Amino acid sequence: MFAYNTSMWLYERAVALAALRNPKARQWSEGRRNIFKRLEESISTTKNIVWVHCASLGEFEQGRPIIERLKEERPELRILLTFFSPSGYEIRKNYAGADFIFYLPVDRLSYVRRFLDIVRPVAAVFVKYEFWHNYLAELHRREVPTYVVSAIFRRDSIFFRPWGGAWRRALRSFTSIYVQNEESRALLSELGINNVVIAGDTRFDRVAAIARAARQIPLIERFKGCARLFVAGSTWGPDEELLIELINQNPDIRFVVAPHEMDEERIAKLAAAIKGGAVRYTQVSEDTDFENVQVLILNTVGILSSVYGYAEWGYIGGGFGVGIHNTLEAATFGLPIAFGPKYQKFKEACDLISIGAARSISSAEELVEWFAPLRDNIALLEMQRSAARHYTESNCGATELITEAILSKIER
Q1: Phi, psi at residue 50, to the nearest 5°?
Q2: Spatial contact of 292 and 277, defined as CB atoms under 8 Å apart
Q3: Where along the chain do the CATH 3.40.50.11720 domains lie?
Q4: Cα–Cα distance between 307 and 222 in angstroms, integer?
Q5: Exposed/middle/buried for 25, CB within 10 Å: 0-12, 13-18, 19+?
Q6: pTM for the complete prediction?
Q7: Minimal CA–CA distance to 116: which of 95, 98, 134?
Q8: Range 167-173 contact pairs with CB under 8 angstroms and sequence separation of 24 or more
Q9: Which of 29, 118, 326, 342 is the most exposed place for a label (fewest CB within 10 A)?
Q10: Closest residue by Cα to residue 64 from 272, 262, 200, 207
Q11: Rounded-to-10 torsion of CA 291, 297, 301, 306
């Protein structure tokens, strides 16, 4: 543990140094300035706090159904939501479902004890990852019920390495470990860890709620008109290079492309390459004539999940980088989807491929080859749409299972 604690000390100082030049490091560092004073001012007299920790935005989407269900079942509970990453905190710092939202102090023992002295949680929930040794050990010492949810384990992870003893000990601090699949349960069983429940992924509950609450967007309705619609979400440059060829080969299909980052240079390059005409969402008005516009570039945030509801097909970006983005938001609307080759660490992507509702592609030619039958064969399209929809619906239920267990423990 000496090496681990030293690494935490060094990490904190390395980020402070990087903050001189790096905006995200600056947010990380500034967000933790005077954090204990701010915590005391906000929380010190508050009781019945359930602490939910998420690394970043993706984990927040998995934790959100649990937060909202806890508040629905027990309104007197107060939710403290913490983030490790600026990309989670800065986007969700005004989330109305939590009572308090902060950055997580670094996992140094003195910080951990001070944090828990202020918060005094009645339960702690870690979402998917984030196995912080000192936090987990101190929660265990204080007999605070502690959970990890929507977790997934693989044999090549550090827990199963000869040098992973400290990480294995961290797992024993949890009251219950809620995993996504049988493989994870079996791997943990090999380590003698049996406080494990196969609950599935809470994101299925989240996307089901998103689908039920999908917004009507008159602008999208006008753009689609009587045509069929293809939505490409969270795209990066390599994705867009492939999509340009698909778009230009299908002039009768309308496309919405939602870049993951609003890089104006890349957006301009994409728009210029579209033969059928492209317009940015932020440039559209009530008077815009879409007659000569084939592509709507969604250069805004917050509506992509609802836009999927207008589409017949989808493409999910990120698969030519570190990994694909959220496939479930499209699948819950019954969209057959394609994505790049780096999807293997995403269980839902593997599942969707196995049931014939998705395909991984590596080139523009493969993308065109996947799309053409779904464009021309209505029966094939409906079969894949049904498979995608059934998959998301049949995997709901993790949130209820987990929250019932947490509330039962708190009441005891």
Answers
A1: -100, 120
A2: yes
A3: 2-200+397-411
A4: 12
A5: middle
A6: 0.84
A7: 134
A8: 167/131, 168/193, 169/133, 170/131, 170/132, 170/133, 170/136, 170/137, 171/131, 173/136, 173/137, 173/139, 173/140, 173/146
A9: 342
A10: 207
A11: 50
- Quote the CA–CA distance of 386 and 357 in Å, as a whole number: 9
Smallest CA-to-CA distance from 69 within 116, 119, 125 is with 125
Which amino acid, 323? Answer: G
What fold is seen in the domain 211-394?
Answer: Rossmann fold (3.40.50)
DSSP secondary structure of 302-323: S-HHHHGGG-SEEEE--TTTT-
Pull the structure tokens for residue 147: 């959970």
Q: Tell me, what DSSP letter sits at residue 105?
A: P
pLDDT tens digits, residue range 87-103?
899 999 999 999 999 99
Structure tokens at 263: 């890089």
Q: Report how far residue 254's alpha carbon sits from residue 337's, in angstroms, rounded to the nearest whole number.
A: 16
Topology of domain 2-200+397-411 in CATH is Rossmann fold (3.40.50)
